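Input.
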Amino acid sequence: MNPYQKTPFLILLAGIAALTILSSAAGAASVAVNPQLSSVPVDYILVTTTNLAPVCQAPCECMAVGSAEKKWGSNGYVQCSETPCGRAPTTTAVIPYYCFQPVTTTTTPAPVACKAPCECMEQAAAVKNWGANGFSMCSERACEYSQAVTGALVTKYCFQPSAAPVVITTTAVPLHVITTNLSIVAPVTLHVVPVHINQSITLVDSDNDGVMDITDNCPSVANPDQKDSDAIKSSCKVLPVSMGGGVVCEITPTDNIGDACDTCPLVANADQTNSDGDGLGNACDNCPYSTNPGQADSDSNGVGDACQNPCTMNVNNVASFSWTT
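Output.
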């Protein structure tokens, strides 16, 4: 109250006290008080309400919204609690105070774009879509940043569903393995199948080239490299002079006989037929039925001298001739 307001108020209190004393002294005296003098204007009454306000936890601070904007900028703060932490009375209104804190800024790497089949999402969403063990992270770098209502940073990553395991079944053929009992286990019943292997065949290496006879393409001739050069050309035949001579071949699979013991190393001849016994198979012998291990062919027409009439030779190509080669 200002000094001018206090004076009438004090006079009123003094009058009421005097009337009270006089009433007591008179015993039955009654004092009437003017109602207009006993009412106090509202402007003279200050009403305060005391409530327990929350204490702001660091780094939050109790202040008005305007103070927070002034201190940290319009987008530089977040509200820590919806409950006021205090009030500031002014001549026109009561301003509530709240707990505020500055927005923590950190340097984050630029987000990456997810490539299919990867999808950008929070880890909780990946668990919801594919289960706790049903996905994998495509990249350790984030694909998106956002801010929650509370001001917390929300980071999303690229996730993809885990691929179903691929089961590849292969059939292996073990070499030189002796098994006395082969057990095949079924889900319920156990079946035991005895296996008998002829060790005399499986473990023999007749030519001592390190390759067992059962897989050696030349079991009686040492050839550790297992070279088989006729794997492309096969079924070669020597044409008679009337057909122009020479050798005609077809492309067929190999004869599976190594060069070291093949009667026709460059021509596939699985039967290894050698009618004249000169060491060369009929499939590659220019005289299949006349012994001529040297394969002499004076006129180079594909027919050996041993089986060609000299009179039919092309004299222009004959450099030398012998009946014995």
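The chain has five domains: 1-47, 49-105, 119-161, 179-226, 229-325.
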